[in-house]
Amino acid sequence: MSSIIELFLSCFVIFYLHKSYAVDTMTVAESLTDGDTLTSAGGIFKMGFFSPGNSTNRYVGIWYTNASVLTVVWVANRQFPLPKNSGVLQLVRNRNLIILDSIQSNNTIWSSSSSSSSSSSSSSHISKKPALNPVLQLLDSGNLVIRDENDQNPENFHWQSFDHPVDTLLPGMKLGINFKTGLETYLSSWKTSDDPSPGDYNYRFDYTGYPQLIMRKKSIISFRLGSWNGLGFSGIPISKPAINASYKIDLIVNENEVSYTYNLVNKSSTFSKLSITPSGTAQRISFVKQTKSWRVLFTAPADHCDEYSRCGAYSTCSLLCQCLDKFTPRNQKEWEVNDGSSGCVRVKNLECKTDGFRKYSGLKLPDTRFSWFDKNMNLEECEMKCLKNCSCMAYARLNILEGSGCLIWFGDLVDMKDLSVNVQDIYVRMASSDSDHAVLKSSDDKKKKVMIKVLLPLFFGTLIMVMSLMVCYLRKKKRTQMNMEGRLRNINETRNEDMELQLFALQSVIKATKNFSLSCKLGEGGFGPVYKGILDEGQEVAVKRLSKTSTQGLEEFKNEVICIAKLQHRNLVKLIGYCMEDDEMMLIYEYMPNNSLDSIIFDGKRRKLLDWPTRYHIINGIARGLLYLHQDSRLRIIHRDLKASNVLLDSDMNPKISDFGLARRFGGNEMGSNTRMVVGTYGYMSPEYAVHGLFSVKSDVFSFGVLLLEIVSGKKNRGFFQQDHSDNLLGHAWRLYKEDRSMELIDEALLESFSVSEAMRSIQVGLLCVQHSPGDRPNMSSVVVMLAGEGSLPEPKQPGFFTEDNILQAQCSSSVATQFSVNEVTITLLDGR
pLDDT tens, 125-179? Predict the structure, then answer.
């Protein structure tokens, strides 16, 4: 009789061992073998045995059902792989989930009880009832749970996979710690794409100060998302609440727990997950049902500025490291070679009792591991709290959405980033004389004194003087008087806009240039001749004198004064002042000992002075200067005449973009315009500008691409000659690139100094910049990144104006009037601005 019962039980077990489950639950009497799957009720997730990547090892995991590529979100035995077709998953009566190494074996290689970091009572949904009939269930949330079959509470779990995440955070899953139970949940990367065992990276909440999400490589911080401010994490720029976002973030910070979770706004339409890759990148991705593929919504780190504390203390990272205002580099020599890791220090030391604060905006807030916070304080109370503690270095509003709370920092402020948008302000402790209060008080007092003692008398005095000049000049020469009136009015307006610009007397300029001696003449352009001068204090300058026969005039003169006076960048020429007296109009610049780039790069002997590191430095400098004009200056500037002769070189061969007479200023979101009169230099002008008068920031990008290829090759674009074809330099470079012969483009003078990878990347970037369609060309921020990077680049399309015939056709078919030059001098006839 007993043998019959044993035979029946064996058949019963074998039946269940080979069953392929299509339901979302599994009982004690059932088992899951390799090849079987457990599916959630809504069909969103499956659980079963799988092999990752090219591995033949088998693991028990959970994955999305409908994704075209296997997308695993949880692994049970990540450290205990099985050989193929050998494992069994079972639920035992004591509410424990186990994996056996084979059907016949009792060798347990993994169990749910051993996977917990604490006892089973650490679950957030624990039942106090004795075990009845435990079942294993896969929920549509992706949560694998053990519960009692007859329990009426659907969230009363004995164990759940959400308490033990691997590398993926699903909606409803928490990251953080429960102080009551001691359970901490965090993400840890796979070792490789073929090996789900714990890798080098972990992503978890750090709650030593105000809680923040931190990525670590082993024990070293690699990335910090920033602290929560009520709208989002401070490391992500958010200009307004994400009302229509696909997910909603919840952050809990209290005495019981610190946790982060997110939930989908429309659970039926979007699948979303947050995961970390084996290389330490955090990605939030959503599922596109139409293509059954994933779309990346957010990646971190996003760029080099996301590297933890890249620029040290009291410094922000943009493209380069920059000290906060009123701070100076700790190590100037390191700073000059773009190594900002040593950070910055205050110009004036703190005094504690008399200190104040200075407001900084648009930054990722510093590391909060050494901080203190109070949810109930207002900003004024927060300031007083910080001011009373000499160790407090800064404070900020904790919750910008509600406008409440206090967050204060102790010690140096590190890991800040320029976000380019003003999301949250931080108030940094400063010496009294550098604080906002001192600056405002000094500014107010100065304005009052100037208004009373200077501006009013100056206004009436200037008015009387102008009226007197008008009368005198009307009697003597009406036309000369009218021109002078216009000049004085425009230049006075310009001076009022920027009081730092110096007005030089004509006599001092004559003395500095030895009465405009030919021995002092440096060259001549469309504006007029340029002379070298030495001021009384010994400073060397370059004097740009408007020629009486020049087609340029007051408009270009004013344009240079307004544009350059407001622009401050190491790769833009510095305007020191101007002279406006009698019939003379002159601009006074800093002197560039090495003259213009074209005087060296196109000279058969002198171009040998520019080895590859110097040329690559010049290319990057011009790119950074253009990026500043297009994006980072107070007004968007389109240069419209970028060429080799308008790039000057200082004593250290640092490039300086010059000649802003034809530049156009834009505000807000303006990107370009059109004109009835084309100005500039053929050979550098983009097709859409030369033919149709349409110019934009992409017109400057085209000019930069031409200039880049000229620097690499040492040849001019126009006038270029090759025996086997009639292409200009752009067409020749394109032809060589398509035939994989780009090395032949490189200047022979560089054969002993150039870097192959840098030169090839520069040529490809140049071709990307000179593509015919403006929409295909990158913007300058992308160009700077591409020149500095090492990754793959897009394939360039055919350049515009790649033969000389193209340019001739453009001249004949242009629908707008054009005034131009071949390469050396810009001739212009401007439309109204």
Answer: 444 444 568 999 999 999 999 998 887 787 889 999 999 999 999 999 999 999 9
Token output for 124: 């957030």
Lowest-pLDDT range, 208-217, 441-450, 615-624, 732-741?
A: 441-450
According to DSSP, the residues that pair with 534 across neighbouring strands are 540
Task: Read off φ and ψ for residue 442, nearest 5 degrees.
Answer: -65, -40
DSSP 8-class letter at 596: B
DSSP state at residue 333: H
Work out the pLDDT band at 117, boundaries 50, 70, 90. Answer: very low
HEC string for 700-767:
HHHHHHHHHHHHHHCCCCCCCCECCECECHHHHHHHHHHCCCHHHHCCHHHCCCCCHHHHHHHHHHHH
Spatial contact of 820 and 827, defined as CB atoms under 8 Å apart: yes
Alpha helices in 340-435 (DSSP H): 379-387
Calpha distance 39→32 (Å, rounded): 12
CB atoms within 10 A of CB 469: 14
Residue in 170, 218, 166 with CA at minimum distance from that of residue 52:
166
* Residue 698 burial (CB count, 10 A): 26
If pLDDT is split at 50, 70 and 90, which confidence band does 498 have? very low
The structural domains of the chain, with segments of one domain joined by +, span 13-164, 165-302, 310-434, 498-591, 595-818
pLDDT at 791: 80
In Å, the largest CA–CA distance within the chain is 137
- Specify whether the CB–CB gap between 303 and 785 falls below 8 A: yes
Q: What is the rounded distance in angstroms from the CA atom of residue 618 to the CA atom of residue 319?
A: 17
CATH class of 498-591: alpha beta
- What CATH code would you report for 165-302? 2.90.10
What SS3 class is residue 377?
coil
What homologous superfamily does CATH list for 595-818?
Transferase(Phosphotransferase) domain 1 (1.10.510.10)
Q: Could you tell me which CATH class the domain 13-164 is placed in?
A: mainly beta
Whether the Cβ atoms of residue 701 and residue 778 lie closer than 8 Å to each other: yes
The tens digit of pLDDT for each residue in 565-589 reads: 778 889 999 888 888 887 788 999 9
Summarize the confidence of residues 779-792 as an average pLDDT: 90
Q: pTM of the entire structure? A: 0.52
Residue 832 has a pLDDT of 32
pLDDT higher for 52 or 555? 52
Q: Is 546 exposed, middle or buried (0-12, 13-18, 19+ CB in 10 A)?
A: buried
pLDDT of 449: 62
Radius of gyration of the chain from Cα atoms?
35
The CA distance from 149 to 93, in Å, is 12
E strand map for 207-337: 212-217, 220-227, 247-253, 257-264, 272-276, 282-288, 293-300, 315-317, 321-323, 327-329
Mean pLDDT of 410-424: 87
CA dihedral 789, 792, 795, 799 (to 10 degrees): 20
Cβ atoms within 10 Å of 762's Cβ, excluding its own? 25
Q: Six-digit token pair at 468?
A: 């007197």
Q: Is the torsion defined by CA of 757, 758, 759, 761 positive or negative?
A: positive
356-411 pLDDT, tens digit each: 999 999 899 999 999 999 999 999 999 999 999 999 999 999 998 888 999 999 99
CA 170 to chain centre: 27
E strands, 149-281, are 159-160, 168-169, 175-178, 184-185, 187-192, 195-206, 212-217, 220-227, 247-253, 257-264, 272-276
Q: Which residues are catalytic?
A: 641
Same fold: 13-164 with 498-591: no
